[in-house]
User: Which sequence fits this backbone?
């Protein structure tokens, strides 16, 4: 994607992301009623999620009416579109609800490529698509992480010039600083994850679970974490982060021969750490 083509798309994404982040910050600081609804086991939505998805969709549609839309909170318009916005208006809703300041706005642009082989994942409809642009807004710190295909990965911090970012170049898993998430909506995976931690903790330099995959991936792209892994993600959790990691010269892959986009199972970060982490997970996930 050329800079001239990416520019207006990124500008629209950043405008939408900033608008949503402003709404979220105001609600977080004011302590107003969130009108929480339980969608499923450990799966919540607030009025802020819904308001922000609508706001993002309105801004993007006004600037690019021909691009489709897929949002976590129900916005779905993929059919017949060459390009689709994939949006999580508030990644880390549980953190937001409980006053824990780690949540993000995630906006990705994906493009339909040659049909790919279905791998039996949870999201077969995403098989033809690959992300080409991504934005993650760290709402509380007001940092914007963004990247586009061929354009590198960048961070814009409040009051500072934009800076290029790069994944960690750590050469091995031993001592690596890792990020992950818990598959809280799938109880069957709880025992497996517990055993993974028992085996992985002695090898690593620490494992963090902040509760926002989009933020974890942005921090991994910036070299804060050496690598990230999680099972059972959704497309809106990972699409923007995939572009960030790849443009920050990192690795992205699924366990075994899986396509991370279709399955939601992802390993990302330092090329060497990801290689060892993949071998580790493959042995345990079988």
Assistant:
């Amino acid at each position: 994607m050329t800079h001239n083509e990416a520019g207006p798309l990124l500008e629209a994404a950043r405008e939408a992301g900033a608008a949503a982040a402003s709404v979220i910050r105001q609600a977080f600081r004011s302590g107003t009623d969130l009108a929480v609804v339980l969608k499923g086991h450990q799966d919540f939505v607030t009025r802020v999620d819904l308001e922000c998805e609508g706001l993002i969709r309105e801004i993007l549609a006004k600037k690019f009416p021909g691009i489709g839309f897929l949002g976590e909170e129900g916005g779905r318009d993929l059919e017949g579109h060459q390009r689709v916005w994939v949006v999580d208006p508030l990644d880390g809703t549980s953190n937001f609800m409980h006053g824990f300041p780690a949540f993000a706005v995630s906006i990705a642009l994906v493009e339909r490529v040659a049909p790919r082989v279905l791998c039996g994942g949870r999201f077969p409809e995403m098989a033809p698509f690959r992300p080409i642009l991504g934005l993650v807004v760290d709402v509380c710190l007001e940092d914007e992480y963004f990247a586009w295909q061929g354009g590198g990965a960048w961070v814009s911090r409040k009051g500072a010039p934009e800076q290029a970012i790069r994944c960690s170049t750590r050469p091995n898993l031993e001592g690596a600083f890792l990020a992950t998430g818990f598959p809280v909506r799938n109880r069957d995976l709880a025992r497996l994850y517990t055993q993974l931690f028992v085996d992985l903790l002695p090898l690593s330099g620490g494992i963090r679970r902040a509760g926002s995959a989009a933020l974890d991936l942005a921090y991994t792209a910036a070299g804060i974490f050496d690598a990230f892994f999680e099972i059972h993600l959704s497309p809106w959790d990972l699409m923007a982060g995939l572009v960030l990691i790849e443009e920050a010269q990192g690795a992205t892959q699924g366990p075994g021969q899986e396509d991370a986009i279709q399955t939601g199972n992802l390993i990302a970060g330092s090329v060497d750490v990801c290689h060892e982490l993949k071998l580790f997970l493959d042995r345990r996930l079988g």
